[in-house]
Structure prediction request, 279 residues.
Amino acid sequence: MVVSRAALHFWEEPPISGEAGSGTIFFAGCNLKCCYCQNAAISRGGAGREAGVSEVAAMMRDLERQGAMNVNLVTPTHFSDAVREAVAEARRCGLAVPVVWNTGGYESVGNIRRNDGFVDVYLTDFKYCDDALAKAYSGVADYRTVAERALDAMVEGVGEVACDDFGGVERMTRGVVVRHLLLPGSLDDSKAVLRLLRQRYGSDVRVSIMNQYTPVLATAAEAGDARAKAVLGRFPQLANAVSKKEYESLLDYADAIGLEDYFWQDGETCKESFIPEFE
Prediction:
């Protein structure tokens, strides 16, 4: 495995990070190629170092000793077998906190089923309904179909949401949180995503509607990055943050279709200071 960061992380949804922080282990690389990725330093494999099963298991135990609410495995899909081995070893050594599988949603059903017994909580994206948008932005033409089937398997695998008390704060111990990031100019597709989640899953998942799209491409282009300039040449809308009006429209739509108990973001979440430091 290649690990880019292992540390307490305080910017997840409340029952994931709470006040104590989520014990995140960021893995380098990704099975998607989102052109707007704010973590491109690791998703394209540039930052990180190799770590074996026992070392990653030790990282998990160390994060638990630091008081983490859980162990949060960020983009683990391409290292799935080794990550599961690390979870098993950490548990043999006494790991007791829930394990979170933090994914872009583009997963095979078989891989999700192999997580049974290893993963307690899924923190998964549902990025697009429009496959043309998925192809343009993330390089995959079948995102919706794959993500739906994977999400079905996640819900089947961990069941309905369950929480406990962790130092006076609600902590999710089982269940699925589905994140959706509103992209500039993509309000209609975001509404389609929320409609699908409401109709297909109801209260079986908790939805997180995010406005934190960070136009890192604009910053990179200004610094002379040729790749960023090329992407913005094709998709100039990605140079802008999401407007408050767009986001409020999406939240109003969530209310209108009866989506209940969802997470939303307040304040200027698109600041680049929200991007962790990777070494």
Summary: The chain has eleven helices and ten strands.
